[in-house]
Write a structure and sequence with these properties.
The protein has helices at 3-19, 30-35, 54-59, 61-67, and strands at residues 40-44, 47-52. The chain is of the alpha+beta class. The two termini are 19 Å apart.
C-alpha cells in the first residue's frame, strides 16, 4: 500500500476509534477496506450480493473468489 493510501486508512480508523465517527467508504481495494470495516457490502451489477462484518466477508469463500483473487 502506498503512503497516501495508508494515511487515508489510518485516519479513517483513528476517527472511528477516537471520536466514534462513522464513514462510508467506496473502495476498490476490497481486502484493505474490509480489513478496517465494521460492516461491509460487496456489490455486483445492480444488486448487493454479500453483506456482513468486514471479517465475515474476508472469510467468505465466494467473496474471496469473486472480489479478492481467490
Amino acid at each position: 500500500m502506498e503512503g497516501g493510501e495508508r494515511l487515508l486508512f489510518d485516519n479513517v480508523r483513528r476517527l472511528n476509534e477516537e471520536l466514534g465517527l462513522t464513514a462510508l467508504m467506496i473502495e476498490q481495494n476490497a481486502r484493505q477496506g474490509l480489513g478496517i470495516s465494521h460492516r461491509g457490502y460487496a456489490l455486483e451489477p445492480g444488486e448487493n450480493s454479500y453483506q456482513g462484518t468486514g471479517q465475515e466477508l474476508l472469510d467468505n469463500d465466494e467473496v474471496r473468489r469473486a472480489f479478492l483473487g481467490g
